Amino acid sequence: MRPRARDKAVHRDSGSGRPGATPRPNSADPLTDAPPPLALLPVAAIAGATAALLLFTAHRFGYFSDELYFLAAGRHPAWGYADQPPLLPLLAHALDVVSHGSLFWLRAPAAAVSALGVLTAALTARELGGRRAAQIATAGAYAVSPVMLQMGHLLITATLDIFLTTVTTWLLVRWVRTRRDRLLLLVGLTAALSLQVKFLSAGFWAVLLVALLLAGPRDLLRRPLLWVAAAGALLTAVPGLLWQARNGWPQLAMTEVISHEVATEEGGRTMFLPTVLSASGLVGAVLLCYGLWRLLTAREARAHRFLAVTFAGLCACYLVVHGRPYYVSGLFAVLWAAGATGLQRLRLTRPRLWSAAAAYVLSAALAVLVLPLYPVHRLTRPSADRLAMESVGWPDLAASVARVYRELPADRRGRALVITDRYDQAGALDRYGPALGLPRPYSGHRGYWYLRRPADDSAPVVFVGADARYLRRFFTGVRKAGTVTNAQKVHNLNWGAPIWICEGQRRPWRTLWPRFSHLNADSARK
Question: Which residue has the higher pLDDT, 320 or 2?
């Protein structure tokens, strides 16, 4: 059979010596090789074990702050929200309605995409020429990565953003091997979904474009379907961008807030790269470093060098702007795959096999520490995980507020408002308050401020958090009526928060409410 013109060009570009030359078996050059067989059974077993572990812990300990916010925001459908696009709030609300308020089913999709991420990582290794051992090693690295397990436990923006970036890199690697332009339509679909999850994903595409210009394959940029897909993805983002424009671009303000938090509370630039490596895991850190070096320097990996340049470029950008380290986690899988594929050249002797198995077991033991597999009373220790600490005590917060609310005289209680200093407190009261007779809460914190504002009639206010000096800017009478505690005695951010009764508002709410808006958690007390 006469070779097609495209195949001739592929063989010629890959250095095969003459057009139509027979590919070398087990060659590392992805342009000349069909991919190895998929190690389906072991990879599926790893993915299934990951999903089972995440589902087993899905109901513990309680909602995370962002999950509570998404549930409340989803009850107010909109084209956009202050600090994220609409997909997560709408998805969370739909899951909540269908499952009748089940935390397990709310988090089930996170477990599912984490398991699919394991499979996608193995498929990426396969596209890079990785045989059975490399595919299993890559899938295992994904499964024992602390950041993948931690995000797989929660339904938050990072959960879907990491998965969609992982799928995107697999599609790009597959396109490099096959040159099938239909894959670019799927790339456009993942881009469109990413832009509905997190506006920050636009940074990935911008850096990727620069990487393609610098490292190639520049032929990708000449494919019409790529730009059709890009136009479609941008079109889906227009409603959210219009919402941002109408509301003064709060997403940009949130970016500055996050940069400030990272710089002052999370170690800033000094801790960025160490945190990236620790998020990758013990085995993952080794594969990541080797995979990055191999993609940047190995001749046989030059077709995928743009992905290493993208990772390095994103790290540089987030170092400059004080971004969070997990923002680059979506590129871990392709680096793990490159590293594992490079290591498959080593002869797999029995000592090496046992050493690799021991490393993965140790990595798994360290990684599962991020999951709530331990008793809740361990959260009272000074070394307790902060994320887990902020997942307990929400029903107790609602009960504490309800006790103060019931102390109001009956004729004033029916008109009283409940306002919180932080958005997570409002989300908790929105979730647990109605069953205790509380009205739906308000908050001026971050995106919650945009959801609703009080009516203009004067009414007593039960206020959670802040301090008396701040509240007297808005009310003539302020008195402390309670304190937030929790049955587990976990000293998280809500522990000891004051509950105030405020009366005599100084101006109508249409004038006061804009002054309640704040993005920093502590800005209300300044």
Answer: 320
